[in-house]
Records
---
Amino acid sequence: MRYNAIDRNLFIKNRKNFATQMVRRSVAVFNSNDTYPIGADSTLPFVQHPDIFYLSGVDQEESILLLCPDAKNPKHREVLFVRETNAHIAVWEGEKLTKARAAEVSGIATIYWLADFEKIFFEVMTQSDFIYLNTNEHYRQSEETETRERRFIKWCREKYPAHQVAKSNPILQALRAVKDAVEIELIQQACNITEKGFKRILSFVKPGVWEYEIEAEFLHEFIRNRSQGFAYTPIIASGNNANVLHYIQNKEQCKAGDLLLLDVGAKYANYSSDMTRTIPVSGKFTPRQAEVYKAVLKVKNEATAMLVPGAFWKEYHEEVGKLMTSALIDLKLLDKTDVQNQDPDWPTYKKYFMHGTSHHMGLDTHDYGLLHEPIQPNMVFTVEPGIYIPEEGFGIRLEDDVVVQPQGEPFNLMRNIPIEIDEIETLMHETHM
Ligand code: GLY
Ligand code: MN
Ligand code: MN
């Protein structure tokens, strides 16, 4: 792997936390992602499924993790199955996990080749009444493809119809939402790489550059710093493109006087970072752009302070909506009568700020987290308000990633990424001289 080795105690602890929540006489299984085909013989680069990675650290296709805390054979309480490597694979694809290496990465003592799975699974299933299946219950999931996990579920229910089914996902959503110190450090590293990318492009952006050239600058900086690349498809949106929320074409030329919205984050060791900055193409904000920018920054800072233990995600969003409403009145984008007559189910501020303020962030950019439970220390959230004004030809969003603290304000993992107007103008000016 391109990233440095991760302390296997993280995965040992994660499995222990999961296993403690399993009912007696039960088995849980977690599968790798497929390597997805494109056409002919080409495939997308392999990306590990975050759940099996979280529980084992194994970053390889065709791996299966099996947990059976009550297995009669103590060796079968935790088992990892990996693809058997051979001389042909070594020549064509390079190094794969040996049994010893898989044990070292994961902290799991029993490693078998994949071919042994059905036999061992049969053994532990006959000693169990429940099978934990890993479905995807993320609030934004939309899977059309039949994943490897899904195929396993189909096979398992067909083969073992008498077992009772339990759900892994709610356990994982609760566990993965609260980050370990090791995970926070990995997310910090992803943010630090994003910072390097942003600082690089501050000296690159000027009237006439193309959005895709900026994308290339980010990627160059990310990869030379051991990142796997973008954590999500980057949005490099100048002028009115910023008002298309998921603009990913990145194909236009940046014009003098326009703002440029950059929603870009590096991935490191499978952990995301998720940053947005909005900068002036010419290196200086107009008074109106600066006025709106300051309003977005103020909402961001005030919203961040509300991410404290015990707060609820839904109420937090309602409060941010109120902050945004008053900001939009000050900017003369809304008037008080609009607000008095607003539909409570679609408050009027949504005309200019139509997306959520925060999401959990971690192995997934839009990470797991049970959204109806109180916020806890060591949850990592983005804070990303925006104001989008197509009639004025610009949109502004600012986004940082923060860690909820036991007391007081969250810790900002992007504290070193320039965000104040003066800072950005000075940095852009210095490098344009
Ligand atoms: N970049 C995706 C998001 O901000 O949620
Ligand atoms: Mn983002
Ligand atoms: Mn985000």
Note: The first helix runs from residue 9 to 20.
---
Amino acid sequence: MKTVTVDLGARSYPIHIGSGLLGASVLYDPCLGSGQVMIVTNTVLAQHHLPVLQGALASRSPQTLILPDGEATKTLATTERIWDALLAARFGRDATLIALGGGVIGDLTGFAAACYQRGIDFIQIPTTLLAQVDSSVGGKTGVNHARGKNMIGAFHQPRCVIADLDTLHTLPDRELRAGIAEVIKYGLIADAAFFDWLEEHLDALLDRDADTLTHAIAVSCRTKAAIVEADEREGGVRALLNLGHTFGHAIETGVGYGAWLHGEAVAAGMVMAAELSARLGQLPAAAVERTRSLIQRAGLPVHAPSSLDADQFLALMAVDKKVQAGRLRLVLLRAIGQAELRGDTDPGALRALLEHFPRGP
Ligand code: NAD
Ligand code: GLY
């Protein structure tokens, strides 16, 4: 097992990465308070992995809430279902919520925990690669609004993150590839050597080789932890974690939540950000090609959806959370391994990118 620590003073927590962790009671004990425990999961995880977790927590007699699957579940209405269940069972401020699932369950459960009685503890048990390398770490929680992704939320750090590689055995290939998009993101924004390593080890990652996965998850979590430690509430450098996300969120919202996976939308968005960086003369064409090629080899989209034209993209991008004083701010690349947040992007260059970027299904 590898453990990466997110060092945030009194709110520090471990991320445990390895095989066979889901059933290891010893990992939960230090993170559970004295109160009641509720597992929040969905119908898919309930079939595959819930019994092992329930076994590990048997001595705490946890309650379980099983929600519908899918991004469409990440709403305020579903959060209310969690609050209803907590109130019905008279959970107090010493209670702990446990999120067993991907980013949808993690974001929802974390948000429910952030608001219930002004904040209770929660534990993240991420079961998708995307959640293990990104969404379970850093304390961003929230839900979608019909007008924009993740528009309602709170910062609320988990007490610990338990990333069990064995849970990935049941993950569909398409979901694995979506997680690889976020892994590639860390190479692009902060770690050129890791990007080189990914170019070399992508096939082993796609084959789910355990050592390769462990390395990729640990490096990704270390990079994310360092960024979150430097800027927990996204006043500056944390925005770099949003490479590709302004385009990606526009795609997710534009095509309807769930039609494109988050990681797929981010993948296309990262190619768009790289190409825009090149159009602005700040990134060599060779770096754009390496970005496009790695993303394509991972089986991820390198095109935008044909249903979104440039005007629709611009309208959707205008509700991005990085908009400041009405000005769009975009994460762009200077090199592979070096990203920057720019608020002065030439609108003409952005429109030209959106008009000419390849479209596909
Ligand atoms: P997800 O939670 O919808 O999971 C993807 C699919 O895989 C679902 O159908 C799920 O039921 C299934 N699944 C999960 N684990 C499985 C397993 N082990 N075996 C079989 N099936 C499994 O999607 P995701 O990609 O994990 O997360 C995407 C969400 O995360 C988006 O809502 C995105 O906005 C959010 N996100 C949040 C952050 C953050 O910092 N909070 C960062 C990135 C993404
Ligand atoms: N996924 C972006 C962040 O955590 O800041």
Note: The chain is about 45% helix and 20% strand.
